[in-house]
Amino acid sequence: MHLEPELIDRLAADLAAADYRVPAVRERLGAAADDARQRGVFAAATAVLDAAEAEAGADPLGTLIRLLLLGEPLRPERIDAALPELGAAGACALGVLAPSGDGLSIALSLSPVLASDAIADDPQHWWILSDLDDQLRRGPARSDHVMGVGGATRSLISQAPAQPVERSLDLGTGCGIVALHLALRGPVVATDISERALALARANARLNGLADWIEFRQGDLFAPVAGDRFDLILSNPPFVITPREPGAAVYEYRDGGRTGDELAADVVRAAPEHLRTGGTALCLANWESPWGENGLERVRGWIEDAADRLGDESLAAWVIERDRVLPVQYAETWARDGGARPGDPAFDALVASWLRDFAARRVVSIGLGAIRIRRLAAAPAAGGPLIHLEQATGAFAPERLGTLLESAFDAGIAAAAKTGADALDAHWLLDPAVVEEREHVPGQEAPSSIVLRTDRPIARRVAADPLLAAAVGACDGDLTLGQIADALATLLEVDASAAREALIAGARELAWFGMLQPID
After folding, report:
1. Three-class secondary structure of residue 455 per DSSP
2. Residue 188 and residue 179: Cα distance in Å, rounded?
């Protein structure tokens, strides 16, 4: 596949002139019809466009919605009017359109995308070329299918650190949307094993005016960047655990060709070697929990393997499990993703194949989440890599998530690196988003429960005793933690040494939650 740069430039000019962007599309269709369209139900959107055209005639935006978002075949002369620079012939030459009956219909998805990024004040408007999704394709995907912008990709982008960097890597770029966001931070190298994916990613970089910021390389995982180091690595790799049975459906965008969760393990073990000191890698992953084991502990082993390769340097890692599903739930999800539906013999065969694969390794659940790794100049005070594992299913902060997660990561590392004496000598600052909830039984002076609550970066509720709650309230940066502990020990009539130990542990835990941070 070769998408001619000159034709891409003409297409960009036409899309801009028609205001083919998410807000304009939603305004034209109305919220109800647009929501239905995104669910794959097009009748309401068609009715809205029919009514508008009956009153005022066709216009470029309406034509592009019909053609590109609803999948309607249209006559070439109508397409020429909507794409005056590119024309129907140019769209066919790009492979965006193909003959269909008496007209032309969409052959590649060309969607407007609105995506938030913590590094930018305003949401980003992109146009993204990819293969057709299930709603427009109406059948199974091709094995080298290039996916558009899905929920996992949006999640990765939203969690990305927000600071500018000298050089970043998008590992497994797919349609290139992550590389576009990385280009907001500085120069990017984007890799993929799929030649088709790279062709579409190059086109999307050109279409959105960022081709000069992104270098594309083909190859498996880190092979195309052997010997290179980066300040930031983002990866939404093909981590889906897929049966290796002969004849099983394989899709390049989701299947990394390894058994079980080994693709995710390979990414985690190798990524730190490609980080500059102080650099961060963030990837999405799935991990298995075999019978009698915890999948999060499996991930710990991958990170420890990575740390062993670094010599004198070490790692800090934060692993967040957002969900844990049963094998049958996992199988159903990915059988549907390939286009099969319940009641279809192919669906049952796919689910059965997944269940046999999990049973062979005695897998009882699969974890879904994100792995964030920082390359450190030296090992933490405790020695070895610093690894924080947790299940956190609360809602993500709706704004500045990447910045908030990175701040909590910094605070967690700083808190864990302190000895007990250092933690007591430090001044700590409470995040302003933290609120305290107390539950009282009528007639009782003391609360029956105290909860510290925050909605950023991840919504959490943390049970606290009176000592911790009082200490957190005093963390305004004025007193050291040791001074706070001693004062409260006297006030609450508890052992001073025990109060200090309890508050050291509590402060370290709350730092990972984004509630507290050492500020000296």
Report:
1. coil
2. 7
Q: How many Å apart are CA 69 and CA 72, to the nearest integer?
A: 8
Nearest to 298 by CA among 272, 273, 269, 326: 269
Half-sphere exposure of 169 (CA within 13 A, CB side): 33
Length of the chain: 520
pTM above 0.85, yes or no: yes
Question: If you ran DSSP here, which 8-state letter would residue 212 be given?
Answer: G
Residue 347 CB neighbour total at 10 angstroms:
18
Mean pLDDT for the stretch of residues 141-154 = 88
DSSP 49: H
Q: To 5 degrees, how large is the angle CA 130–CA 131–CA 134?
A: 125
Q: Token pair for residue 284?
A: 């999405």
Q: Which of 259, 246, 316, 254 is nearest to 290 (CA)?
A: 259
Give pLDDT tens digits for 258-296. 889 999 999 999 999 999 999 999 999 999 999 999 999
**Backbone dihedral angles phi then psi of residue 94, each to the nearest 5 degrees:** -75, -15
Report the b/e string of 448-465 with b at 16+ CB within 10 A. Answer: eebbbebbbbbebebebe
> What are the beta bridge partners of residue 463?
451
Kindly state the tokens that stand for 238: 């093909």
d(CA 354, CA 351): 5
Distance separating alpha carbons of residues 433 and 401, to the nearest angstrom: 14
